[in-house]
Amino acid sequence: MNAPQDISLAHNMTRLGRLDLPGAGQVRIVGTTAYIGHITNKERLGTSLVDVGDPQNPKLISQVFLDDSDSHSHKARVVGDLMIVNHERNMTAIGRKADELPGARAALTATLGREPTHAELAAKIGVSESDIPVVEAAQKRGYDLGGFRIYDISDKSKPRQIVHHRTGGIGVHRFDMDADYAYISTEMDGFVGNILVIYSLADPTRPEEVSRWWMPGQHVAGGEQKTWQGRQHRLHHTLRFDDLLWAGCWHGGVRIIDVSDIRKPTTVGAYNYHPPFPEPTHTFMPVPGLHGGRRIAVAIDEEDHAHSAEEMARRRGRPHGCLWVFDVTDFADIKPLSLFEVSELDSPWSRAAPGRFGAHQFQEHMDGTLVYCAWFAGGVRVVDVADPTAPEEVGHFIPEPAAGKAAPQTNDVDVDSRGLVYIVDRYRGFDILEFTRR
């Protein structure tokens, strides 16, 4: 159904339709079907398939539910009659701060000469004392369900699971796929943080590992020594364009990987802007064509979560997650050209906590020079990078917060062949928008 929208929160964009779906991590449009991967929820909802042929009246086709309560399946990709979804362990209430716990424990033990208390650990990483035993219990339970599932969706009303392929660690996060391969970002035994594992889909009932790629230092079982804390340097995911994979590597920045020999992925370009920029690199992809004779790429950072108003206040003055534009003409000499940021004045919920304001993700394909960015409490921002040295916002839409939430949390965005824009909220809601540049 349609919903009213305050015109002050939209520019060159209007809402055509909406479904009141649970919070989601990813939306992918193929033809006239939206595939929506849901974030942890009590219903164990994994994936929704929605008919968007009539954008003013989106209709639910079917839903896939998880069979365990420790996992979520918040990402989905589709090629032909195959749908792949991730299977990843649920985070505790403190999210990625749990990754800081081993390092904090080691540092405090060295300083205090004894095991730290829960209160001391909580103070060290900035969480509540009651959070620590919850994280410890989750670590003690272990987890062996991580991986990905492949479905036959030749009948979209009845998705049929073909296989649940196990990987390692806490499982699979984001990924890419084509008709031949799946490019999976996952934890694996012997590695610290997510790495790339490429699987052949020649037989979808038996995905076959073809090759792996990781950043030097991740393969600790192989004797490598990491030079960063925790899992700060890890693969978020790659996107394939021709024979290149474009990789966002969290606090490791960006990488370009040559897969002309699929069995031997080779790094051919790298650039890292951490530090001084505090927010990790989420996604990296090329802009089609040449621009002023140069080859251009864009990257987007993911704003970290502020769990309280106090934490939000401590971050004032710190750069938010933003959009980057790079000159990648010479892979051996990648150069940043510009940044695009959204002012805190441009959203009434920019300082609402708990929540996030800055950037998160953009659509994972481009036909021209428009980048559609999911900007958490800033909604969706449409940015033109025709002049790569001066990105220009040409449209935006900020949805209302979900019921009982402090701010909207626009988590993902996609654009279909008709030019319609689709966004999902991390808490609740699926919107179909039209962008009209004036």
Briefly summarize what is shown:
With 438 residues, this protein is mainly beta. It has four helices and 30 strands. The longest helix has 12 residues.
Give the topology.
Blueprint (H helix, E strand, L loop, with lengths): L9 E2 L1 E10 L1 E7 L2 E6 L6 E7 L7 E7 L5 E2 L3 E4 L2 E8 L11 H12 L5 H8 L5 H11 L5 E6 L7 E7 L1 E10 L3 E7 L7 E6 L7 E6 L19 E9 L2 E7 L3 E5 L7 E6 L9 E11 L2 E8 L7 H6 L8 E5 L7 E6 L20 E2 L7 E5 L5 E5 L7 E6 L12 E6 L4 E6 L2 E8 L3
Antiparallel strand pairs: 1-27, 2-30, 3-4, 4-5, 5-6, 7-9, 8-9, 9-10, 10-11, 12-13, 13-14, 14-15, 16-17, 17-18, 18-19, 20-21, 21-22, 22-23, 24-25, 25-26, 26-27, 28-29, 29-30
Helix pairs in contact: 1-2
